[in-house]
Batch of 4 targets.
Target 1
Amino acid sequence: MGGKNGTRNGLANPSRLKAFDADDKHMLRVVIETPKGSRNKFAFNAEDHIFELKKVLPAGMAFPYDFGFVPSTEADDGDPVDVLVLMDEPAFPGCALTCRPVGVIEGEQVGKKRKVRNDRIVAVEQDAHSWADIKTLDDLGKHFLKELEEFFVEYHRLSDKEYRVLGAKGPSRARKLVKVSMK
């Protein structure tokens, strides 16, 4: 499918959306890649403008919440900044949401040859009823936060990588991570 001047007319590229909401700079734009409850891990391929299946989690393991990225960002691992979104019902791959960051799980991914920072923002979708009172990670409770951290540890272990949780910080640190990662 060639377009004018040899360009391709593919799907829209959600990775080029703005990182922050135009009306409220405290709110993030998030594009969902993998919906809550899915064993399939999807990822957006910016070159081909499609969502691709990256891996299938083993039976009994699924994404605990919607998982996506902040568009127009690039984290230390070369991918857009990751976001785990708390909302009432699962979204779908490619769905763009407006979310309130409540914090960030700071961590590093250890591969065979190198270590790289791989922080995960935790955010609440702006219209989520069940999560409306959550403003910071502390509001979620220590047990809930530990479960999220353990999911990332186990998820990386399945790929023969190690994920070390370095700490958890609040919403201002999450917004700062986005700002320094903007392309």
Target 2
Amino acid sequence: MGKDRLTAFSDGVIAIVITIMVLELKVPHGADWAALRGVVPNFASYMLSFVYLAIYWNNHHHLLHTVTKVDGLILWANSNLLFWLSLIPAATAWMGDNFLVSIPAAVYGVILLMPAIAYLLLQKALIHRQGPHSVLAKALGGDLKGKISPVLYVTGIGLAFVDPRLAIVAYILVAAIWLVPDRRIEKVLRES
């Protein structure tokens, strides 16, 4: 099968997830600074989650540029990724309503960890389909970012029970690592 339906469906799901998140944003109840301060935790959670979804969309876009054909394994691996991404709005809202509380911060970390694992499984499914000498396999190489991220998520989840602020710092650190554009796929595509 071609990749076009997979790409369109994935783009649509991510757009819906972002729409759900923005609809969950709290509006200040009042017209003063105190009312605005009251929604800062929700906005901070939203902003971090939006950055994560943008990172996934961007990397998914690059990932699919290495693909010409998909199979059932790839479709299921991609659906697994979309499932975990679809839970981000709920975790975002819960953490925003309970900012800097251990369990919501830890659950938020789990909800960030699971798409990272799902993305890794999608990469493996693509490499399985395309072979160990494919553009994607060459581009990923050792994939240092992909290996560091789950470790930081698990660290953040543990830190949530020590000090939720440290957990948030760990989650922000992962986002910062991925905000730096990953040009590996572009580079290999240019070279081939």
Target 3
Amino acid sequence: MRARLLYLAGVVVVLGAMGWGALKVVRVAASTNAVEMPTTKVKKGRVTITVAARGELQGGNSEMLTAPMVGGGDLAITQLREPGEVVNAGDVVVQFDSTQQEYNLREAEADLAEAEQQVVQAEATSAATEEESRYTMESTEADVKVAELEIRKNPTLAAITARQNELALEAARNRQRQAAEDFNNKKTTSAAGIAIQKAAENKAKVTAETQRKMIESMTLKAKTSGYVNIQQNTNQNMMYWGMQLPPFQLGDTARAGMAVAQIPDLKSWEVSANVGELDRGHLSVGQKVTVGVVALAGKTFPGHVKSIGGTSGPPWDRKFECRIALDEAGRELRPGMTSNMVITIEVLDDVLWIPSQALFESDGRSFVYLQSPNGFMPHDVTLVRRSESQAVIAGIGEGELVAMSNPDQMNKPAAGQQSAMKALSQ
């Protein structure tokens, strides 16, 4: 019995110690979690309204090298510069397989040679026909003259013989007229035949020249000096959303018109960025921009807004393209570098401002939680300008203390902790 009593007493002591410890832990946790209300004072001074964005560095007047419009099939790449390789104007960047085009050129040249010989043959035949017709015409002229001489004898000849001479003269003159008509007709026919052969020759020349130009177009050369930026190969058998497309490589095929390589103009750098639709109304061409390149820590480059494009993207994430031109560039810049941009929208002097998180909006009104004898109470203000970090306001005094979070939400956890402590104490 004594052992039982000692055991029960020990259990009671242990449970009491555990309850006292739990109560102490709750009190300590309550005192630790009782976070003070974050506050800030309304300040007055200069505020710079900015818009931040991230983009990709590239040449301003980039030269795009595209697959030529040759044939109806894909073109195989037989020569390709390495990405980032430096090239000069006139250097070969991309070479496509021109085996079929060279075969077509040889056929076209053979057709041209045959057409040239056809023209020579037609001219020779025309010359021979013309000479024969001229001889026939001169022969008939001689026959007419002989018949005219014979007809002079008619006064001294019998009537029958005289009549025969007249008929012979008339027949000679008919042959002369026929020979003249045949000469003109054969001359016209020969000229037409030569013209037809020359047309065929010109057609063969055009075909051969077209094949030569096709072969030349299959060699893509750089028009300016710069770095080679190989483009992504979209000529894939299977594509899916989010797929990382590989760049073109030696042996790949490209469709006509596809961009294979790009040579940026290193004298005019640009940054292409997608900016949120909400910031669209704050931007305008010519605004100053500070560009920081991720790969070059601590270095910034001045620039300005060059152009603003239209919006794109799904309704829940609308963005628009903004192109930034660098006013000064460095030799260490390379195409494709990721860049962080800060666009200066407006500089306001001698204005009241608070951190953006201290300004609240609800039901079309802007307000702050202003300190008063009764605690932090809502106070309506006028929003003048707002950026990601600062809000320019009016309708409040300088130095006033405002809360940076909703006091109601801050009080809810504290009330819950007090209830828990009361329950444990009971």
Target 4
Amino acid sequence: MPMIGEPRAVDLDLLDVESALLRAAVGDYALEAAVLLLANAGGWLPRLQAAGLIAIALDGDAAGDGPWAAVQWADLDRALRTGRIAGSSGELRLLRAAAGLADGQPVDLADLTAGVDRAELSLVLAALAHAAGSHEHRTDGDDLLGPVVAWPVRAP
């Protein structure tokens, strides 16, 4: 049962939800990649937020930085089966890819690659590159190489 004053994902604007998810994911490249994949895909964060599939928590040491959040990955299948969340076939493939990165849920790569459009494929490739840590790779001279596939620039 929520306590009075306890933050809820539905009470936060989308930017705050994304920030809270990223705050909790920092340092775990696969989890960061999953959050960034959902955020860059555009439609998933508001749907997950509205369906109550994002949990918010305050960390005593980091409360000044804002809340932390986590997608309730284990509840996705039930939410999809019951119609609490829905999406196009490409969107669902992106959601499954994010769940695979964040929670180790199985992903059929043949189905994934056969069913996404070019923009969605770019997001999946950027997510895989991020999860592999390619944004931190360096040359032998210690120069930062940058990601193998960069995240697309989002419109303001």
